[in-house]
Model the fold of this input.
Amino acid sequence: MSTDWLSSALVFGLFEVVMYIGMGFLLHMQLGLAGIGNFGVVGFWGLGMYAYGIIYGGHAPSGTDLIIDIPWPFGDPWQAIASVILATLVAGLGGLLIGWIISGMDLDGQLVGTFGFAAIVFLLARSQKGLTGSEGGIGGLDFPYDIGSEKANAMLWLLVASAIVIAIGYYTWRVHRSPYGRLLIATGQNEPLARSLGKPSNLTKLWMFTVTSAGMGLLGAMFAVIVHFLTPLKLGVDVTLAVIVALILGGAARVWGPVIGVLLTVGLFEIVVQLYAPFPDSWYRQAMPVVKQIIYGMSLIVVLMYRPLGILGDMRRDKLMRSIHGD
Amino acid sequence: MLEVRDLRSGYHGVTVIKGLSLEVGNEVFTILGANGAGKTTLLATMARLIPLMGGELLFEGEDISKVPPWESAARGIGYVPQEKGLFPELTVGENLNVGGMIGDRDRQERVDEIYELFPDLAVLEDQLAGTLSGGEGRMLACGRALMQDPKMLLLDEPTAGLSPLYVDMFFESVTKIHETRGVGIVLAEQNATKALEVADRVMVLSLGEAFVIEEAGNLTTEQLKEGYRI
Done:
């Protein structure tokens, strides 16, 4: 079967959609289940991304090594796999630290605390030349295999990322139906009361935040491989905004909320508009990023005004309301 | 069963409970007192939701002054706060299930017992807790705490704001819970008349101190008035 229609740009667009769906699942568990505000999604994602670049052995654009240079006893793909695992652990440790710091805070404090964390990651990426390559970034992050062409390599990486995101989605679905998930929901809704349920709700919440932050780091590490080159410009707040907008648009309390939300936002812009809309090239470079943020913002306002629980909303509540008031 | 020794507690450095000592066994122990007497603070401290400023808290002979709230619950202290005693976005059934996360007995068996005690809840099983009426909500909060199979149940003004019908029903349930399940009950109440009907012993709390601790039948109107500072 011919795959000519599947351009490299489309593969990259699909990768972004898949990655944001994964991030949406993870943020859904943090915000939709446990009620933890995270305005620093890009920080955990970026930590995983940069940790991968550093651990894997990426180098500054000039070709000089970074100060951390691990003498890997084996090559790819094991070097990349080990680097992804370690980058995930680094992001998880970041999640553990920040989760512990914000555990006693209210939602406002959590949002500020996580935003601060993202700012720290950004500043480290921008200022620590020996560690992160500073503005010059980190390069030399090729696919850990070669199956013929760049597009084929990217397609395989997309499949790997899709499998990981499906696993994250399945985990999310299982959490929803487990006693652990109910404890998380209970903690998110009424934390003081949840403390008297006989289970260490604060530790449950911290563990969940750690695991989901590690998941964001994993997706960041996956992204590092497909872009090959990391710069601080990738750590913009737009990453966090895209995940939050998609989640709220789709429905923060529903498992499928992030999927619907990402398809309507990232999918629409990064695939439909970017690849198929008949606009001049200059428009994509200059206007689209701005138009995209404006439309995201307006969609958020409209959804919060008319459908605060998102497009999918809380179907259980909708069903109940229909049974009371009729269709 | 539950012993309080020279207990001091409060919020943000303000001492609300000022050196209180009492013992509660397997009985219905009622705490009466005016608004601001410290009833809610005392119960929340007993449930370990507020840290002690001083004194000791013992349950079944063991010091629980420093254990986290989830551990005091696991040891057998159930707590029903005056407000926000539910998880509003969970259904009635899910609230009960969350309450029953600890304990060895079959969870469904416990749910059935709660539905037997509060039949209205069985009908509302799939309804979100946030949509319940005040009385239904209190029943559910109480049922959720009972799902933990507590040895001691702390009820903070469970009938506040309820219609007379629900008040009568609730006090009947308190007696039933104590008699059929053998659960010790600490009941903080403003409704002195009703509370005294079901109580074995009573304490009148006044400005964070025990004004009087007495057998319920021996409490005089004068003691009550003086304790309420009327």
